[in-house]
């Protein structure tokens, strides 16, 4: 395994904007993206909800096969690459991507000696507003202080953005210290947490949720956790937003 050197991407909606209303799916797919059960399930979700943004973590892609993401543009930012596959976070969208960059964690996870990655993309809203979107898979199996340092690194990279922002993904906040660091991070960015009426379906470790959607300068018009335990050990979380 080695550090990947480039994005895997296809941009074909560069003339489109998200507009004044849009929907989002966030899901840690647990490396199941090549399985038929996953493909059938996410296809049904997309058909039922017509998402504008897909934020997926632990995506597995074969190097020999082109991605087909249901007519979405996409960017896959790997954190692991082998001879046959890349693994990482993927953001897919039906709007322009004005810019993108990835942050590979400075620390490696102790168990596998691998990095984690965050993907930052910028998308047009209405009236030339720009939405910053972070698709994050936070580092695990490191000291709490290292977890905080990685959040600080992300904060330094996005804090200058003015306007609407979404930060979503698998935050690996399985202990109270990590939850506290995340609360400080979101407070400093003026981010709010999307609340779910069916929160019981959220992935939790030691009673702590680890999957979140945070936002600012937007209104939430709908949110839901989808029960998919037969597919992944994480459940998809969805939200619909409108601009202010």
What does this structure look like?
The structure is a single chain. With 244 residues, the protein is of the alpha+beta class. It has one domain: Deoxyribonuclease I, Chain A (4-Layer Sandwich). Helices cover 17% and strands 39% of the residues. A seven-stranded mixed β-sheet has the order 1-4-5-3-2-15-14, with no helix packed on it. Strands 6-7-8-9-13-10 form a six-stranded mixed β-sheet, with no helix packed on it. Helix 2 (144-158) links the parallel strand 8 and strand 9 (165-170). Helix 2 (144-158) packs parallel to helix 3 (176-188). The longest helix is centred in the middle third of the chain and has 15 residues, at 144-158. It is globular. The mean pLDDT is 91.
Structure at a glance:
The chain is an alpha+beta fold and 244 residues long. The chain has helices at residues 36-49, 144-158, 176-188, and strands spanning 8-10, 21-28, 53-62, 73-81, 85-93, 99-104, 117-124, 130-137, 165-170, 192-193, 204-205, 208-209, 211-216, 218-225, 237-243. Helix 2 packs parallel to helix 3 (176-188).
Q: How would you summarize the topology of this molecule?
A:
Blueprint: E1 8-10, E2 21-28, H1 36-49, E3 53-62, E4 73-81, E5 85-93, E6 99-104, E7 117-124, E8 130-137, H2 144-158, E9 165-170, H3 176-188, E10 192-193, E11 204-205, E12 208-209, E13 211-216, E14 218-225, E15 237-243
Parallel strand pairs: 2-3, 8-9
Antiparallel strand pairs: 1-4, 2-15, 3-5, 4-5, 6-7, 7-8, 9-13, 10-13, 11-12, 14-15
